[in-house]
């Protein structure tokens, strides 16, 4: 499954 | 990381520190909406679910802990601390924040990047953050005299998201496939909600008069 990019923002 | 995002995070941090300073030193939360503080605690609790699963950077983890710790301790101060709670304006702070939480939750169930618990909670936290300031803005309209620290708190809180908008524009043009419509629209709505406050805040600063919002 297409992994979503990590949420790197606060 | 870019200068806009760093400026945004530092402004956000300052807003929290200004509020903690006010509550901790003069033991007063006059003019502060407990409803907004509770909504912010919920925003951080649902936004940072990944704090122990996804490690981004030391900076990211430390900032998340600061925002979680400060938002929950502010709620604790306003609810439990015998001196601070006395200055809480219960009669004026009557915004029913349940009517903000429910629509945001329903919207998050429909509009999200992926229908998983974490992604729905993440979208919910963005929608909720966009409207979390409403009880505070309503309270400011009701309480005539807005003290400087409260005015600075709301101003910094609005300014941080404005910096983030520049950060999103910068990242859109510098990083391929950087598209987050949910974040962008929520952040834009959030900043627009502060527009009239900014207008009156800037005028009170320019004319060097006390900040006063029209009824």
Automatic annotation (TrEMBL), chain B:
Any one GO MF annotation of this record: ER retention sequence binding
Bilayer-spanning residue ranges: 55-77, 98-115, 121-140, 152-170, 182-202
InterPro entries named in the record: ER_ret_rcpt
Cellular compartments per GO CC: cis-Golgi network; endoplasmic reticulum; endoplasmic reticulum membrane
A Pfam family reported for this protein in Swiss-Prot or TrEMBL: ER_lumen_recept
Keyword line: Endoplasmic reticulum, ER-Golgi transport, Membrane, Protein transport, Receptor, Transmembrane, Transmembrane helix, Transport
Cell location: Endoplasmic reticulum membrane
Any GO BP annotation: protein transport
Membrane topology: Multi-pass membrane protein
PANTHER family linked to this entry: ER LUMEN PROTEIN RETAINING RECEPTOR (PTHR10585)
Similarity comment text for this entry: Belongs to the ERD2 family.
Name of the featured protein: ER lumen protein-retaining receptor
Natural source organism: Musa acuminata subsp. malaccensis (Wild banana)
Lineage: Eukaryota, Viridiplantae, Streptophyta, Embryophyta, Tracheophyta
């Amino acid at each position: 499954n297409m992994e979503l990019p990590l949420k790197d923002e606060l | 990381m870019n200068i806009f995002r760093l400026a945004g995070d530092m402004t956000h941090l300052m807003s929290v520190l200004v509020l903690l300073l006010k509550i901790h030193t003069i033991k007063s939360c006059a003019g502060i909406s407990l409803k907004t503080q509770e909504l912010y605690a919920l925003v951080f609790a649902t936004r940072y679910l990944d704090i122990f699963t996804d490690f981004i950077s030391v900076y990211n983890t430390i900032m998340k802990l600061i925002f979680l710790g400060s938002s929950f301790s502010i709620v604790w101060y306003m609810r439990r601390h015998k001196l601070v709670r006395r200055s809480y304006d219960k009669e004026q702070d009557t915004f029913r924040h349940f009517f903000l939480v429910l629509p945001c939750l329903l919207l998050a169930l429909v509009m999200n990047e992926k229908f998983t618990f974490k992604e729905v909670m993440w979208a919910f936290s963005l929608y909720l953050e966009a409207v979390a300031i409403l009880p505070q803005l309503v309270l400011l309209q009701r309480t005539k005299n807005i003290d400087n620290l409260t005015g600075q708190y709301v101003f910094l809180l609005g300014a941080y998201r404005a910096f983030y908008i520049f950060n999103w524009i910068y990242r859109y043009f510098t990083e391929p496939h950087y598209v987050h419509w949910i974040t962008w629209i929520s952040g834009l709505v959030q900043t627009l909600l502060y527009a009239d406050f900014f207008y009156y805040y800037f005028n009170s600063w320019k004319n060097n008069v006390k900040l006063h919002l029209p009824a």
